[in-house]
Protein backbone atom coordinates (compact mmCIF):
# COMPACT_ATOMS: atom_id res chain seq x y z
CA UNK A 1 0.00 0.00 0.00
CA UNK A 2 1.27 3.48 -0.89
CA UNK A 3 2.46 5.45 2.11
CA UNK A 4 0.27 8.47 2.80
CA UNK A 5 1.69 11.97 2.52
CA UNK A 6 0.26 15.37 3.45
CA UNK A 7 -0.56 15.92 -0.20
CA UNK A 8 -2.89 12.89 -0.15
CA UNK A 9 -5.00 14.36 2.66
CA UNK A 10 -7.82 16.87 2.30
CA UNK A 11 -7.33 20.03 4.36
CA UNK A 12 -10.67 19.28 6.01
CA UNK A 13 -9.05 16.25 7.67
CA UNK A 14 -6.53 18.53 9.36
CA UNK A 15 -9.35 20.85 10.43
CA UNK A 16 -11.23 17.86 11.78
CA UNK A 17 -8.19 16.74 13.75
CA UNK A 18 -7.87 20.26 15.16
CA UNK A 19 -11.46 20.05 16.42
CA UNK A 20 -10.72 16.67 17.99
CA UNK A 21 -7.40 17.76 19.53
CA UNK A 22 -9.12 20.78 21.10
CA UNK A 23 -12.04 18.83 22.53
CA UNK A 24 -14.71 20.18 20.19
CA UNK A 25 -15.68 16.63 19.19
CA UNK A 26 -15.10 13.31 20.93
CA UNK A 27 -13.25 10.32 19.48
CA UNK A 28 -16.41 8.61 18.24
CA UNK A 29 -17.45 11.72 16.32
CA UNK A 30 -13.91 12.15 15.03
CA UNK A 31 -13.76 8.62 13.63
CA UNK A 32 -17.25 8.89 12.16
CA UNK A 33 -16.43 12.13 10.35
CA UNK A 34 -13.02 10.82 9.33
CA UNK A 35 -14.72 7.95 7.50
CA UNK A 36 -16.08 10.46 4.98
CA UNK A 37 -12.52 10.93 3.72
CA UNK A 38 -11.69 7.22 3.48
CA UNK A 39 -11.76 6.79 -0.27
CA UNK A 40 -10.28 4.00 -2.38
CA UNK A 41 -7.07 2.71 -0.80
CA UNK A 42 -7.23 5.33 1.96
CA UNK A 43 -8.91 3.64 4.92
CA UNK A 44 -10.03 5.06 8.25
CA UNK A 45 -7.28 3.05 9.87
CA UNK A 46 -4.62 4.47 7.60
CA UNK A 47 -5.90 8.01 8.20
CA UNK A 48 -5.85 7.50 11.96
CA UNK A 49 -2.36 6.04 11.84
CA UNK A 50 -1.12 8.89 9.66
CA UNK A 51 -2.48 11.71 11.77
CA UNK A 52 -1.63 10.23 15.19
CA UNK A 53 1.57 11.61 16.78
CA UNK A 54 4.70 9.54 16.22
CA UNK A 55 6.96 9.97 19.21
CA UNK A 56 9.25 7.06 18.40
CA UNK A 57 11.02 8.30 15.28
CA UNK A 58 10.88 12.08 15.67
CA UNK A 59 13.14 13.04 18.58
CA UNK A 60 15.74 15.58 17.51
CA UNK A 61 17.67 15.41 20.79
CA UNK A 62 17.92 12.10 22.59
CA UNK A 63 17.20 12.01 26.34
CA UNK A 64 20.76 10.80 26.99
CA UNK A 65 22.45 13.35 24.73
CA UNK A 66 26.05 13.54 26.00
CA UNK A 67 26.09 17.31 25.58
CA UNK A 68 23.33 17.82 28.14
CA UNK A 69 22.46 17.38 31.77
CA UNK A 70 18.74 16.63 31.58
CA UNK A 71 16.81 15.31 34.56
CA UNK A 72 13.35 15.37 36.11
CA UNK A 73 12.91 17.59 39.14
CA UNK A 74 9.97 18.63 41.31
CA UNK A 75 9.09 22.07 42.60
CA UNK A 76 6.38 23.60 44.75
CA UNK A 77 3.32 25.33 43.27
CA UNK A 78 1.29 26.38 46.32
CA UNK A 79 -1.27 28.38 44.31
CA UNK A 80 -1.57 25.68 41.68
CA UNK A 81 -1.26 21.91 41.79
CA UNK A 82 1.02 21.54 44.79
CA UNK A 83 4.04 19.53 43.68
CA UNK A 84 4.90 19.73 39.99
CA UNK A 85 7.29 17.56 38.02
CA UNK A 86 9.36 19.04 35.22
CA UNK A 87 12.28 18.26 32.93
CA UNK A 88 15.26 20.48 33.72
CA UNK A 89 17.93 20.62 31.01
CA UNK A 90 21.17 22.54 30.58
CA UNK A 91 24.39 22.26 28.60
CA UNK A 92 26.71 19.75 30.20
CA UNK A 93 29.66 21.12 32.14
CA UNK A 94 28.53 24.74 31.75
CA UNK A 95 30.27 26.89 34.34
CA UNK A 96 28.54 30.23 33.81
CA UNK A 97 25.06 31.05 34.99
CA UNK A 98 22.66 30.71 32.08
CA UNK A 99 19.51 32.51 30.94
CA UNK A 100 16.40 30.43 31.50
CA UNK A 101 13.49 29.30 29.36
CA UNK A 102 10.18 27.85 30.56
CA UNK A 103 8.81 25.45 27.93
CA UNK A 104 5.03 25.05 28.11
CA UNK A 105 3.21 22.03 26.73
CA UNK A 106 0.00 21.78 24.72
CA UNK A 107 -3.33 20.60 26.15
CA UNK A 108 -2.13 17.06 26.88
CA UNK A 109 0.71 17.25 29.38
CA UNK A 110 4.45 16.88 29.12
CA UNK A 111 4.72 14.51 26.16
CA UNK A 112 7.96 13.46 24.40
CA UNK A 113 7.73 16.30 21.85
CA UNK A 114 7.72 19.02 24.53
CA UNK A 115 10.52 17.30 26.43
CA UNK A 116 12.45 17.30 23.16
CA UNK A 117 11.84 21.05 22.75
CA UNK A 118 13.21 21.57 26.26
CA UNK A 119 16.39 19.73 25.33
CA UNK A 120 16.65 21.67 22.05
CA UNK A 121 16.52 24.91 24.03
CA UNK A 122 19.27 23.70 26.36
CA UNK A 123 21.55 22.86 23.45
CA UNK A 124 21.23 26.50 22.39
CA UNK A 125 22.87 27.61 25.63
CA UNK A 126 19.94 28.01 28.01
CA UNK A 127 18.77 26.27 31.14
CA UNK A 128 15.25 25.10 30.37
CA UNK A 129 12.42 23.82 32.50
CA UNK A 130 9.50 21.97 30.91
CA UNK A 131 6.84 21.40 33.59
CA UNK A 132 4.03 18.86 33.51
CA UNK A 133 0.73 20.42 34.57
CA UNK A 134 -0.70 16.90 34.83
CA UNK A 135 1.57 16.19 37.82
CA UNK A 136 -1.29 16.44 40.39
CA UNK A 137 -3.14 13.76 38.40
CA UNK A 138 -0.20 11.40 38.05
CA UNK A 139 1.57 13.09 35.15
CA UNK A 140 1.46 12.61 31.39
CA UNK A 141 -0.14 9.16 30.99
CA UNK A 142 1.80 8.01 27.95
CA UNK A 143 -0.64 8.93 25.21
CA UNK A 144 -2.24 12.18 24.11
CA UNK A 145 -5.88 11.06 24.22
CA UNK A 146 -5.67 10.27 27.92
CA UNK A 147 -3.50 13.34 28.44
CA UNK A 148 -6.20 15.61 27.00
CA UNK A 149 -8.82 13.94 29.18
CA UNK A 150 -6.71 14.49 32.28
CA UNK A 151 -5.93 18.10 31.46
CA UNK A 152 -9.64 18.86 31.13
CA UNK A 153 -9.93 17.95 34.81
CA UNK A 154 -7.71 20.85 35.83
CA UNK A 155 -8.55 24.54 36.01
CA UNK A 156 -6.46 26.45 33.48
CA UNK A 157 -5.83 29.34 35.85
CA UNK A 158 -4.45 26.94 38.44
CA UNK A 159 -2.22 25.49 35.72
CA UNK A 160 -1.07 29.02 34.94
CA UNK A 161 0.04 29.25 38.56
CA UNK A 162 2.09 26.06 38.05
CA UNK A 163 4.06 27.72 35.26
CA UNK A 164 4.46 30.94 37.21
CA UNK A 165 5.86 28.77 40.02
CA UNK A 166 8.25 27.23 37.47
CA UNK A 167 9.46 30.73 36.65
CA UNK A 168 10.06 31.38 40.35
CA UNK A 169 11.88 28.06 40.78
CA UNK A 170 14.16 28.73 37.82
CA UNK A 171 14.85 32.33 38.83
CA UNK A 172 16.49 31.09 42.05
CA UNK A 173 18.27 28.10 40.52
CA UNK A 174 22.02 28.13 41.07
CA UNK A 175 22.68 27.69 37.33
CA UNK A 176 20.31 30.45 36.18
CA UNK A 177 21.22 34.12 35.85
CA UNK A 178 17.65 35.20 36.63
CA UNK A 179 16.84 36.35 33.09
CA UNK A 180 13.97 34.14 31.98
CA UNK A 181 11.71 33.81 28.97
CA UNK A 182 8.86 31.48 28.10
CA UNK A 183 7.89 29.60 24.95
CA UNK A 184 4.60 27.75 24.71
CA UNK A 185 2.58 25.86 22.14
CA UNK A 186 -1.22 25.91 21.70
CA UNK A 187 -2.49 25.85 25.32
CA UNK A 188 1.11 26.67 26.16
CA UNK A 189 0.88 29.67 23.85
CA UNK A 190 -1.98 31.00 25.97
CA UNK A 191 0.11 30.35 29.07
CA UNK A 192 3.04 32.25 27.53
CA UNK A 193 0.77 35.21 26.82
CA UNK A 194 -0.64 35.10 30.34
CA UNK A 195 2.77 34.79 31.98
CA UNK A 196 3.65 38.02 30.18
CA UNK A 197 0.52 39.53 31.74
CA UNK A 198 1.21 38.26 35.25
CA UNK A 199 4.99 38.60 35.50
CA UNK A 200 6.35 42.14 35.01
CA UNK A 201 9.91 40.79 35.37
CA UNK A 202 9.56 38.22 32.57
CA UNK A 203 12.16 39.10 29.93
CA UNK A 204 10.57 37.58 26.81
CA UNK A 205 7.59 35.53 25.69
CA UNK A 206 7.12 33.44 22.54
CA UNK A 207 3.57 32.10 22.13
CA UNK A 208 3.15 29.62 19.27
CA UNK A 209 -0.47 29.76 18.01
CA UNK A 210 -1.67 30.69 21.47
CA UNK A 211 -4.98 32.16 22.56
CA UNK A 212 -4.84 35.86 23.34
CA UNK A 213 -5.51 37.54 26.70
CA UNK A 214 -8.34 39.98 27.22
CA UNK A 215 -7.76 43.61 26.29
CA UNK A 216 -7.59 44.54 29.98
CA UNK A 217 -4.95 41.90 30.64
CA UNK A 218 -2.97 42.56 27.48
CA UNK A 219 -2.47 46.19 28.47
CA UNK A 220 -0.46 45.01 31.51
CA UNK A 221 2.26 43.25 29.50
CA UNK A 222 5.82 44.46 29.98
CA UNK A 223 7.80 41.67 28.29
CA UNK A 224 8.74 41.80 24.60
CA UNK A 225 6.65 39.37 22.57
CA UNK A 226 7.48 37.24 19.56
CA UNK A 227 4.18 35.81 18.33
CA UNK A 228 4.13 32.83 15.96
CA UNK A 229 0.91 32.05 14.06
CA UNK A 230 -0.12 29.45 11.49
CA UNK A 231 -1.66 30.91 8.36
CA UNK A 232 -4.46 28.33 8.17
CA UNK A 233 -5.33 28.56 11.88
CA UNK A 234 -8.50 30.63 11.61
CA UNK A 235 -9.61 29.62 15.12
CA UNK A 236 -6.67 31.22 16.94
CA UNK A 237 -5.95 33.93 14.39
CA UNK A 238 -9.43 35.39 14.88
CA UNK A 239 -8.23 36.99 18.11
CA UNK A 240 -5.14 38.64 16.67
CA UNK A 241 -6.57 41.94 15.42
CA UNK A 242 -7.93 42.96 18.83
CA UNK A 243 -4.73 41.81 20.54
CA UNK A 244 -2.56 43.75 18.12
CA UNK A 245 -4.61 46.89 18.71
CA UNK A 246 -3.99 46.76 22.47
CA UNK A 247 -0.29 46.04 22.02
CA UNK A 248 0.10 49.05 19.72
CA UNK A 249 -2.01 51.36 21.90
CA UNK A 250 0.18 50.54 24.91
CA UNK A 251 3.51 50.62 23.07
CA UNK A 252 4.23 47.00 23.99
CA UNK A 253 7.19 45.61 22.07
CA UNK A 254 6.03 42.84 19.78
CA UNK A 255 6.69 41.13 16.48
CA UNK A 256 4.17 38.76 14.93
CA UNK A 257 4.82 36.26 12.16
CA UNK A 258 2.16 34.46 10.17
CA UNK A 259 3.45 31.41 8.32
CA UNK A 260 1.38 30.97 5.17
CA UNK A 261 -0.33 27.71 4.23
CA UNK A 262 0.55 25.87 7.44
CA UNK A 263 -1.71 24.41 10.09
CA UNK A 264 -2.02 24.97 13.82
CA UNK A 265 0.67 22.80 15.37
CA UNK A 266 3.11 23.28 12.50
CA UNK A 267 6.08 23.22 14.89
CA UNK A 268 5.19 19.80 16.28
CA UNK A 269 7.27 17.39 14.22
CA UNK A 270 5.43 14.31 15.49
CA UNK A 271 2.28 14.85 13.40
CA UNK A 272 1.61 15.52 9.68
CA UNK A 273 0.62 19.09 10.53
CA UNK A 274 4.35 19.69 10.87
CA UNK A 275 5.91 21.96 8.28
CA UNK A 276 9.69 21.70 8.24
CA UNK A 277 10.41 25.03 6.57
CA UNK A 278 8.08 27.06 8.79
CA UNK A 279 9.05 25.19 11.96
CA UNK A 280 12.76 25.67 11.35
CA UNK A 281 12.36 29.37 10.61
CA UNK A 282 10.08 29.90 13.62
CA UNK A 283 12.50 28.10 15.94
CA UNK A 284 15.51 29.99 14.59
CA UNK A 285 13.64 33.23 15.22
CA UNK A 286 12.73 32.04 18.72
CA UNK A 287 16.31 31.22 19.65
CA UNK A 288 17.62 34.51 18.24
CA UNK A 289 14.92 36.42 20.14
CA UNK A 290 15.82 34.76 23.43
CA UNK A 291 19.54 35.31 22.88
CA UNK A 292 18.84 39.00 22.33
CA UNK A 293 16.38 39.55 25.18
CA UNK A 294 17.95 37.32 27.86
CA UNK A 295 21.56 38.41 27.49
Automatic annotation (TrEMBL):
Named from the GO MF annotations, one term is: hydrolase activity
Which first-to-last residue range defines the signal peptide? none
The EC number(s) given in the record are 3.1.-.-
Q: Gene3D superfamilies, per this entry?
A: alpha/beta hydrolase (3.40.50.1820)
Q: Which residues form the Dienelactone hydrolase domain?
A: 84-292
What InterPro entries has UniProt attached to this entry? AB_hydrolase_fold, Dienelactn_hydro, Dienelactone_hydrolase-like, YqhI_dom
For this UniProt record, give its keywords in alphabetical order, as a comma-separated list: Hydrolase, Membrane, Transmembrane, Transmembrane helix
Q: Which residues cross the membrane?
A: 34-56
Key word Membrane present: yes
Q: What class of enzyme is it?
A: hydrolase
**Per its UniProt record, what SUPFAM superfamilies does this chain match?**
alpha/beta-Hydrolases (SSF53474)
Positions of the YqhI domain = 1-35
What protein does this entry describe?
Dienelactone hydrolase family protein
- Species of provenance: Thalassobellus suaedae
Amino acid sequence: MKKLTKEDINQEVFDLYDDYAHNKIDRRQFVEKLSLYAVGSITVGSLLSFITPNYVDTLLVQPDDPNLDSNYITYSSPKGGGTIKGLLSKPKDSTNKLPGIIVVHENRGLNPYIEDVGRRAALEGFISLAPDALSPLGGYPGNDDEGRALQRQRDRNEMLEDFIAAYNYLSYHKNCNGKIGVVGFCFGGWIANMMAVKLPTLKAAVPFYGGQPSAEDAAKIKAPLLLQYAGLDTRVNAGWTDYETVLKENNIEHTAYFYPEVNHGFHNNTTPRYDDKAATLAWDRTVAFFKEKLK
